Amino acid sequence: MWLPRAAALVFRAMEGSFVYLSFMGNIADSDGFIASLFNIALMQDGFILTHIVSVEILTVVLDGCLALVLMYAIVREKYYRHFIQITLCVCELYGGWMTFSPEWLMGSPNLSTDNWLYFWVYLVFFNSVWVLIPGLLLWQSWVELKKMYHKGTSLEKKFQ
């Protein structure tokens, strides 16, 4: 239950603040802690910044809402819990891929890899978390759906 809560919090706080700062000011000129996390060399390229902001808007709105629905489905033990969980995980993995793959495909000319904080904390650690958590949740849904399937097929065999 803590994973969807953490996801909802991060979508609203971290990524929401990135979208807010992108529309209401300039991230490069901001002095706050949150702005410093996003103040990477990617901000030098207007096209890449626009691409990232467009993916983040979708992430904040869609994934944030899905995380809230998922929390409700878990607490109330709703039948659609794993559908929402799988959808949220796939959206998050897709968003991560679309944020970084264009830069990687161009040879990473705009990524700041010489700064320890940006490389190890932002690029490696934070983005590893956003691959690991959806991966674990996808595995959990796979296992639970497999159990439900086998439980259903064993019941059908009993009644035949």
TrEMBL record:
Residue ranges of domain EXPERA in the record: 1-138
Listed name of the protein: EXPERA domain-containing protein
One Pfam family named in its UniProt record: EBP
GO-annotated molecular function: cholestenol delta-isomerase activity
Domain of life: Eukaryota
UniProt keywords, alphabetically: Membrane, Transmembrane, Transmembrane helix
PANTHER family assigned: EMOPAMIL-BINDING PROTEIN-LIKE, STEROL ISOMERASE
Listed transmembrane segments: 48-72, 79-97, 117-139
